[in-house]
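Subject: design request, 193 residues
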């Protein structure tokens, strides 16, 4: 089939969420390349509504993790889904780090002024994760970290402008042990001829 097996297709299928990182830094140059890939995403009205905060401070990441864990636990309290139950067990563990001890966190923020900000920033995030994969760098979108949005101290410490919201907190790092890519269910597709 045309285009079935090329570098882009292979890279898309090679990406997976990495939750086990080597104690090895990701260079600032690599992060700049990753952000550069992000900003080539399409945006509604060409709005480019993003703002990036790069966090390398482990002490701060730990504080954010400790703040977010109980918040998510409270929200997931009554959800019976199997995947959720599994994740709840991790969250309840005192040592669990929502950032998986990754060396770097990039928070993609979006402007409240945009009409399509959530879509735009999500596509930016996917570009970033795919770019990272192509560079041999693992990543994981850590939605749990969005709770920092409710905390004015964190928002100020991170230098986040008042009219921006947290959309995609993504950790990056080198994967400890390469794992199987999770399988996908067959997509539901309707063709209208
Ligand atoms: C919006 C969003 C939020 C997510 N939040 C988390 C999270 O808080 N913690 C986590 O470990 N993974 C998180 N993930 C990663 C998903 O769990 C993961 O993408 C999914 O299980 C599929 O696995 P794959 O990325 O390896 O293909 C999130 C992904 C998305 C798109």
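Subject: RE: design request

Done. Sequence follows.
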């Amino acid at each position: 089939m045309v285009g079935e097996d090329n570098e882009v297709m292979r890279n898309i299928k090679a990406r997976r969420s990495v939750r086990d990182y080597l104690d090895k830094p990701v260079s600032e140059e690599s992060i700049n390349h990753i952000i550069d890939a992000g900003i080539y995403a399409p945006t509604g009205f060409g709005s480019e509504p993003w703002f990036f905060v790069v966090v390398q401070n482990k002490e701060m990441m730990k504080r954010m993790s400790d703040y977010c864990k109980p918040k998510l636990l409270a929200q997931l309290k009554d959800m019976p889904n199997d995947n959720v139950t599994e994740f709840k067990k991790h969250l309840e563990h005192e040592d669990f780090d929502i950032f998986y001890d990754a060396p770097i966190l990039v928070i993609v923020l979006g402007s409240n002024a945009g009409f399509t900000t959530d879509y735009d920033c999500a596509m930016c995030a996917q570009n970033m994760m795919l770019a990272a994969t192509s560079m041999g760098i693992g990543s994981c979108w850590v939605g749990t970290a969005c709770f920092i949005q409710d905390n004015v101290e964190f928002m100020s410490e991170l230098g986040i402008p008042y009219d921006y919201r947290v959309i995609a907190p993504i950790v990056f790092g080198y994967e400890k042990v390469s794992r199987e890519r999770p399988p996908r269910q067959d997509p539901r597709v309707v063709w209208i001829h």
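The two ends are 20 Å apart (CA to CA).
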